[in-house]
Amino acid sequence: IDKKALQMHFSRNAANYDTYANVQKKMAYELLNMSAFDGMNNKGCIDILDIGCGTGYLTEQLISRYPNARITAVDIAPGMIKYAREKFFGKNVEFICLDIEEAALNKKYDLIISNAAFQWLNNLDKTVEKLDCMLEDNGLISFSTFGDMTFNELHFSYKIARNKLKTDMEYLPGQRFLSSDE
User: Taking a C-beta distance cutoff of 8 angstroms, is the pair 61, 32 a contact?
Assistant: First the structure.
């Protein structure tokens, strides 16, 4: 993944992102419902790390579900962070622009959550190991990502076009996602 291009594209589209992110919103809803962590409600103030917060759609749901939480919301795209900061001014959320793969956050979290961002990681195994070390005892890592059928129609259309044009060019119109075979 070209992280500079990723930053640029997401930053440029921050203001319009929520208009088109219908699948991501559904994923966030399901992720949050599956990530219910009963131990958090008994602890009082909890620490949450929201990775790939984007415009703050999931962050807003977290604020609503855990009003006493201290939330650290991170995203690689400066435009997304700027947009989210303005949206949540005065809330108990710290927004940080960083690449979670490169970051050294010296804090422990009760919940590390990420919606539709892990597909942009270059080293998933190493990053998950690092995140695991950032968990409090009995903490939870919960994330959603796209599957092997994501962009399937688009990839199929490009295959037809390559065949029609009689070209061997192996250009991908979108990100390849992990399949159940990998």
Answer: yes
